[in-house]
Amino acid sequence: MLVMMNWLIWNCRGAGKKNFVSFVKDCTRIYNLGFVAILEPRIGNFRADQVIKRLGFECVVKADPVGYSGGIWCCWKPSVISIRVINVSRHCIHLHVDPNNQGGWFMSIIYAHPQESLRLSLWEELKSYKNQLQGPWCAAGDFNSISCESEKQGGSPANRAAINRFKDCLDYCELADLGAKGPPFTWQRGELLERLDRVVANPLWRSIFSSASVTNLTLPPSDHCGLWLRMNLSNQASP
To answer: What is the CATH number of the domain that holds 51?
Structure first.
């Protein structure tokens, strides 16, 4: 029997908005989501806990924002998927996913700092993590980076040095872009469009989930597209 696993990774640009909870609940129902990662919620502590509780997910791990900057929430249904938290840092949550007790795989949910000089520590974190793990690995989220000049339209010329540093990190970690259906750019501000959000994975993960797909969803409350990641569990096996 084929079982499809549906994940949403989304920079919502603020989870304190009036209709945020109902909007996420609608997405959960429409896309049959078992896991939702919320990036840049812009609220923390007690207020964040109140909003998260209303989303209806039994399991949650979060990296609180610093003021209004950053933040990651990972929410999932244990009846759908088994997840163990490995590490939480300001810009990344590392998870181990084992849906059917066959060895599982690693998942990193990313929110990279919008300032390029402050992203470098995240690139180093991912390189260090790569040296420690063995097995299938996927990373998804808002990398706040483009991997080539064609992923930017409008605004000032692309920063070639920043592109190279991002590509060097992905190459070192053996993380290749899964591509995406839908809009080619995932973020827009006025006439400036960029592909900042993506899903990448190492060769072992891609061989196991060879039919995995990503769709960029236009979700109007935010200026970022959500990443709808679909994986067929019948393909998942022990590495």
So the answer is: 3.60.10.10
What residues contact residue 160 under an 8 Å CB cut-off, 6+ apart?
149
Dig out the tokens for 36 from the structure. Answer: 């939702």
Cα 163 from chain centroid (whole Å): 19
115-173 residue pLDDT tens: 999 999 999 999 999 999 999 999 999 999 999 999 999 999 999 999 999 999 999 99
Which letter, b or e, does each residue of 186-209 get, where b requires 16 or more Cβ atoms within 10 Å of its Cβ? bbbeeeebbbbbbbbbbebbbebb
Domain count for the chain: 1
The pLDDT of residue 237: 46
Provide the residue type at 144 as one letter. Answer: N
| Angle formed by the axes of helices 116-132 and 160-173, nearest 10° | 10
Residue 198 sits in which domain range?
Answer: 4-233
How far apart CA 234 and CA 2 sit, in angstroms, is 6
In a domain, 239, yes or no: no
Whether 109 has a pLDDT exceeding 50, the answer reads yes
pTM for this prediction: 0.95
Identify the burial level of 53 via C-beta atoms within 10 angstroms of its C-beta, where 0-12 means exposed, 13-18 middle and 19 or more buried. Answer: exposed
How far, in Å, are 183, 186, 210, 236 from residue 3 at the CA level? 27, 28, 14, 10
Structural domain includes residue 165: yes
3-class secondary structure for 129-163? HHHHCCCCEEEEEECCCCCCHHHEECCCCCCHHHH
Q: Is 167 exposed, middle or buried (0-12, 13-18, 19+ CB in 10 A)?
A: middle
